[in-house]
Design brief:
Number of helices: 10
Distance between the termini: 57 Å
Structural class: mainly alpha
Radius of gyration: 18 Å
Number of domains: 1
Length: about 220
């Protein structure tokens, strides 16, 4: 019972820390302090890498991606440090990955209007399970240049991650009931959060009106 409450407390602490870190939206920070503008006033109104690319160019988009990717990775490292420090067997880093994405989408510091969380999710996914991440990356990255619709490719990769995460954990001999299934459920929640943030993109994909990679949005 004491262990249960320890895990619960760790999950709560990690959730708060991850949300606060996730709320540092790089697209908004870069556009405000380096461009003296707010990226949310341009293009799609989304505070993310793709809109930065269309609005301010490759350099701004690259730094946006790096910053958002690193904060996703950072919260996983913090969560696992807490687990190691307090002898917690449950990997609360999966909880951290969900809340850092929520922080990116609904940033506390920017009136709860942020991006859609792909770069942040990628950073978290990479550190959570690099084998699953790299397996997806090998097949998904070339698709960006073939399909040329970033949202479609990202959603495909997001959909595959919980499945491959399950397979990798299972092949590593993790306990099915205490590790494989719980972590897969949390990875699925992370994926569903990304899908929810992309609900407008999904509608445009169905209608055939989603902008392609590198296109300028008026």
């Amino acid at each position: 019972m004491n262990e249960f409450y320890t895990v619960l407390l760790a999950c709560g602490a990690v959730a708060v820390i991850s949300y606060l870190i996730g709320s540092f939206n790089m697209a908004i920070l870069i556009s405000k302090f380096h461009k003296a503008k707010d990226i949310r006033d341009f293009g799609s109104g989304n505070a993310g890498m793709t809109n930065m690319l269309r609005t301010f160019g490759r350099r701004a988009a690259t730094w946006t991606f790096i910053g958002d990717f690193l904060k996703g990775a950072l919260v996983v490292f913090i969560a696992r440090y807490i687990c190691n420090e307090y002898g917690i067997g449950f990997d609360v880093a999966y909880v951290a990955s969900i809340f850092v994405i929520i922080g990116h989408i609904y940033p506390l510091y920017f009136k709860f209007k942020g991006g859609k969380g792909i770069a942040t999710a990628l950073g978290a996914m990479f550190v959570l399970n690099w084998i699953a991440f790299m397996t997806i990356a090998v097949g998904i990255i070339p698709m960006v240049f073939i399909i040329k619709i970033v949202s479609a490719v990202c959603l495909c990769g997001t959909c595959l991650y919980p499945v491959l995460n399950f397979v990798v954990l299972w092949l590593q001999g993790k306990n099915m009931m205490t590790e494989v299934i719980p972590y897969t459920v949390l990875a699925t929640i992370m994926a569903l959060t990304i899908f929810y943030a992309h609900r407008e993109n999904i509608v445009r994909l169905r209608n055939g009106t989603e902008p392609s990679f590198g296109s300028k949005k008026k």
